[in-house]
TrEMBL record:
This is HEAT repeat domain-containing protein. It holds the Pfam family HEAT_2. It comes from the Bacteria.
Length: 427
């Protein structure tokens, strides 16, 4: 558990100080500046990683881990204990402390004890256990926080003590580490205690989808037929992940998943569930999947249209979209919802055949008021070898400080396009 006064003072190194303060943007800016000064030799983020963990800034620690931090280089005494992490209820903190490079630091007896601790929190309920430990009947302050790069958890503060409600996800993680096979029903129950953005939900879905066995598939099928939209939503994500984690499109559970999602798309009435179902078709392009997507091109809910737009990209071996898909992409690139426009532009870029109607519509997005739309349009035009990407990239300028990693992805397509043109220019 984290209590008031858990962190104090300021580290001398600016990167460590930014990590300790919880300033993710500054952390990324400092790493970029170090890259520039050292001509490509990135500053070691390991000390900042340790500082972020000590301050319980788990999202920053997760980012630093992705950017090269080495947990094995941090002495155990400079990290929170595993018991502190479990009590705090942060799945990301537990993940960092049990990283593959330092997992050997914990004997099985300790992992068993931590599993029992996580189960105790989970079974008691975060609020009830927090009240028991603090002895306070005051009002609990609640908020939602980013725990890692992708998932959020609830955070509760009472009598100067702060905890997160990720104990169910931690329990799932520790059981997997210990080789304990949790029942499908229990994993579903843990997921449905939370919402779709919570770590407990995603962790249960991933664990179940990796079980390429009849029992797990039957669980997805049962959820699909449930009257409760929340249960169907979890079933849709689980079915989608069966397809995502398949070794090939010919794998048994991939075939089953695509068939189920395609049929499901014609019958689902809940927009949130429908969007998840359609997202499940985005990496499998075929006539039936395309027809299921096109059925919802004009859906009244933007999230559904975004799923349609994302699913209409064409794989490299088949460059030509159908006439209906072509028209849908033109329509969706002019959608009133910005995220729909971005998804449609991305899919149009996937086609990469120089189609004039598509490239002209992409080029119209270069004047969009939002930079993220302009970036996507530059990238898509470059993939179509359309020279309009070059001037547009020049107008956008270099990636913004703190956003280099993301924006470089979009701009470098135009840079790659420009280099051959420069090489062939008369000298």
């Amino acid at each position: 558990m984290q209590t008031d006064g858990h962190t104090s003072g300021a580290a001398e190194d600016p990167l460590v100080a930014a990590a300790k303060a919880g300033d993710k943007l500054r952390v990324k800016q400092l790493l970029e500046e170090a890259d520039d000064r050292c001509q490509g030799d990135r500053k070691d983020p390991t000390a900042a990683f340790a500082a972020a963990l000590q301050a319980f800034h788990t999202e920053i620690a997760d980012t630093l881990l992705r950017l090269g931090a080495q947990p094995a280089d941090v002495p155990p005494e400079e990290l929170p204990s595993l018991r502190q992490a479990v009590d705090f209820g942060s799945p990301a903190l537990v993940d960092a402390l049990t990283h593959s490079s330092i997992r050997h630091r914990y004997p099985r007896t300790e992992l068993n004890a931590m599993r029992d601790l996580a189960r105790a929190w989970h079974e008691a309920g975060t609020e009830a256990e927090l009240r028991r430990r603090t002895g306070s009947s005051d009002t609990i302050a609640r908020t939602r926080v980013q725990d890692d790069e992708y998932c959020t958890v609830g955070e509760l503060t009472l009598a100067g003590t702060t905890v997160r409600d990720g104990h169910g996800a931690i329990l799932t993680h520790l059981e997997k580490m210990l080789g304990i096979r949790t029942s499908c029903q229990e994993l579903v129950a843990r997921a449905l205690e939370r919402d779709a953005d919570h770590t407990a939900w995603s962790r249960a879905a991933i664990e179940l989808s990796h079980r390429r066995q009849p029992e797990a598939w039957a669980t997805a099928e049962t959820l699909r037929a449930d009257a409760d939209p929340l249960r169907r939503l979890f079933g849709a994500e689980l079915t989608r992940l069966f397809e995502v984690f398949a070794d090939s499109h010919d794998e048994e559970y991939c075939v089953l998943a695509v068939a189920a999602l395609t049929d499901w798309a014609t019958a689902e009435t809940d927009p949130t569930v429908l969007a998840e179902v359609l997202h499940g078709l985005s990496s499998y392009q075929g006539p039936r999947a395309e027809a299921a997507l096109l059925l919802h091109t004009h859906h009244h809910v933007p999230a559904v249209r975004r799923a349609v737009a994302a699913g209409l990209g064409t794989p490299p071996h088949s460059r030509q979209p159908s006439d209906a898909a072509h028209q849908a992409l033109l329509t969706l690139m002019n959608d009133p919802d910005t995220d729909v426009q971005i998804a449609a532009c991305h899919s149009a870029g996937d086609i990469a055949n120089g189609d004039r109607a598509l490239t002209d519509t992409m080029a119209s997005l270069l004047d969009h008021p939002e930079r993220r739309v302009q970036l996507q349009a530059v990238h898509a035009l470059a993939r179509h070898h359309d020279e309009r990407c070059v001037q547009a990239a020049e107008r956008l300028g270099p990636p913004r400080p703190g956003y280099r990693e993301d924006e470089t992805y979009y701009l470098e397509a135009a840079w790659r396009y420009e280099r051959p043109r420069e090489d062939t220019s008369p000298g």
